[in-house]
Amino acid sequence: MSRHCAQKTLSSRVSPAIGRVLPRSPIASWTTPRSRFSTSARRPLMELTGFTEEQLTIREAISAICAKFPNTYWQECDQNERDPKDFHAALAKDGWLGIALPEELGGAGLGISEATMMMQTITQSGAGMAGAQSIHANVYATQPLAKFGTKQQLEETIPKIINGTWRTCFGVTEPNTGLETLKLKTLATKNPTKQTYSISGQKIWITCAQVASKMILLARTTPLEEVKKSSQGLSLFCIDLDRSRPGLDMRKIKKMGGRAVDANEVFFDNYEIPENTLIGQENEGFKIILHGMNAERCLLAGEALGLGYAALERAAQYASDRVVFGRPIGQNQGIAHPLADAYMQLEAAKLATYHAARLYDASKTDDSIPFHSVGVACNSAKYLAAEAAFKACERAVLSHGGMGYAVEYDVERYLRECLVPRIAPVSREMILNYVSEKVLQLPRSY
User: How far apart, in whole angstroms, are the C-alpha atoms of residue 55 and residue 115?
Assistant: First the structure.
């Protein structure tokens, strides 16, 4: 749906068909911004002033879907390591997975600003990082494909990702290179006679690989020792994950949080893929993948914010209800002040996050916005949101006392999951290195 159509829908309150921005079900409470969606019926903590009508509408509509998946659903998925496929299907049903993909391919044609709001609303609903990660790659990993893919690739792949037929994962990280993306060793060897590439190597921490049909894969097409610059020699592919064919093996990784979505080691041993799975030009994959990295920073920042607000809402609720020594524990400044501080940290990170998302979107049409400025804003937002979320989740558990350790109160799950945005897709320390070098112009330390 175009921005014009979205505004028209806002005015008429007519729900569009599947694949559009607003869901089919009517949206309630069209009075003032204060009465719009909150993940808590009692206290909408996040200040909504300054958001666009589209963002608020998205928040409202996504909340209606998330309301069908209560905390008990996510507790069960987490404890049983069960994929939330019905949650993914519910979002795909009304086209939400295409929120930032082109309209001509069935997407909504909106920006990362709107997608960030969607991802924040998902985590804040109680779904946490597991809910967000179940669709995360479908939203951001498809951005390079949408921009650089061939007509055939787009027409065959994007609509099926949007409607939920195919799920996607992102294959970049390797066990022996970590954050050194330019040192990747997974090799794609071209066979001109057969018009194929043969993939050999290993990827790690690949989310949703067990349930994905497609992988956006970054692999080396020219050996590192043969390139002049380390940023050269990498290529991006959109490949089928055909488990019936030889050369592909996946092993699940047992992990601390987000257990509802699988994380994996993926092994390629001369796994053959068609030549036409190459996205863009050969050896230009790193430049292409940069198109999606800043978008991912924004989305992950939004997810962290939602998790932090969810935890803080739980803590404030508990602190009001829990009575010890004849008074609510929230009356004690030892409880109230840490929670108030966590709130202010989240609000500050919120401003940084949506500033970065707006800058990212504006840079697509405004050549005066340098790529450097977008990178600094998106990395800063991810850092600040992750730190604010960690503080909120930790203090939520401590405010609950012993009950913070109990599964039924959810905050222990939030604490386990809030470590993800601090670690991935880039560590806190590497962001500090980036800002030190690019902004403060200090000598490079790595």
Answer: 9
